[in-house]
Amino acid sequence: MIFSAPVIALGATLGTASGILAICGLSLLCKSCKKGISEKDQESDSEKTQPSVFHSAQQFSVKKSTEPIQPRTLLKFPRIYTPKPLVTSPELINSTGYTLETTDEPSVENTAVPDDSCLATDDSDEVFIFPRQGSKEALAISEELKRKTAASNTAPNPKLHFSLRYNTQTLELHVTVIEAENVSARQGHDCYITGHLTTKSGRSEALTSIRRVTPHLLWEETLVFPLPEGYGIEGEIALSLFNCDKFSQHTSTGVMRFKLADVSMLSDADCWVDLQPPKQDPAISVGEILLSISYLPAANRLGVVVMKARSLQSDKLKDVIDLSVKLALKHQSTKLKKKQTKRVKHKMNPVWNEMMMFEVPHELLSQSSLDLEVLNQACVGDVQSLGRCAVGMQSTGTGLQHWQQMLNNPRKQLAMWHPLYE
């Protein structure tokens, strides 16, 4: 019992030490376990961060910039063709059948100059042959192309089929326009034939109806010319082919002329003639004016729209340009009413677009006409006339044609260019 207290104290000390060692061992064991787990996590994270198709191994930093972003160009440079030198390949030189020919003539420099006619790409052996500029081949090809273009541009002349007959009872010359061929539609898609009889006593005109341009045109219409003196007098007949289109000037594309003395020889005979291109005389016309006319039968009103003018004489428009159009409605030779458009300044090709109304009974239309005059007011009290034109049944050319179209198409606006004459 004496040693029980020290023994008890020793046992307690040993128990405490063993407990501390056990706690230390457990703590070391926990640390080692945690370290192993952390290493496994790092290995798994490293496997996840390896570069693949969907994950990039590089890290990019995005920086903001105020400079505009330029789009990436998608253009590709064209393939450049370079001259292919005329150099003999080594395989050909080393072949047994190849022999180098020599002559006694002196050598010429640049004998192996590459031919300009052989062009090839750098990455292919495709060869394109072009004739050298100035060579015989190039000249021959250019001449052939010129001949082909000239042949394609020169269309055959129009042909007209007509007949003549002089009526001794009515003292009239009848010219029957039968048909036409080779009519071109370049100047307009519609055409008609005009006939002019010129004698010492005066000049008369007759027109056919308008036909659509086709390879073969058929009229079978008779143009009647009064000829009381007979065809033995001195005179001339001209048949002209005119092409026309909407809002365009009627253009003569062919004409034929014959004397009245030849009527007896051509009488009652079918004649085919080639129409010759008309002789252009630009000095006759001093400009053009575009008019639109219509007639309202219910109201007995004639509407005239003065639209615009072009190609006016520039020598009369040097200092001051102040243009207007004066219209006069006439019945036979009596002026019934006058009107004038507003003035347009500083324009060589003036535009008015003004409509004017005239009261005209329907029964007086055949004997009525319109006279138009383009005026330029150079200064106060000084008015210059730049050109005139007339539209009516007593007119000729486009004036007569425009009036006839208005009578045949009531309540319809019809526009046409009219030449101006001094």
How far apart the termini lie comes to 166 Å
Mean pLDDT across the residues is 76
Task: Give the tally of β-strands.
Answer: 21
How much helix is in the residues? Answer: 10-25%
The computed structural class is: alpha+beta
Low-confidence stretches: 52-57, 86-131, 149-153
Net shape: elongated
Order of helices and strands: HEHEEHEEEEEEEEHEEEEEEEEEHE
Q: Beta-sheet strand percentage? A: 35-45%
* Helix count from the secondary structure assignment: 5
Rg calc:
50 Å
| Main sheet record | 5 strands, antiparallel
Overview of this protein structure:
- This protein is an alpha+beta fold and 422 residues long.
- 19% of the residues lie in helices and 37% in strands.
- It is built from five helices and 21 strands.
- Strands 6, 7, 8, 10 and 11 form a five-stranded antiparallel beta sheet that branches.
- Strand 6 and strand 7 form a beta hairpin.
- The longest helix is centred in the N-terminal third of the chain and has 45 residues.
- The chain is elongated and about 185 Å long.
- The termini are far apart.
- About 14% of the residues have low confidence.
Briefly summarize what is shown:
The chain is α+β, with helices and mostly antiparallel strands and 422 residues long. Helices cover 19% and strands 37% of the residues. Strands 6, 7, 8, 10 and 11 form a 5-stranded antiparallel sheet that branches.
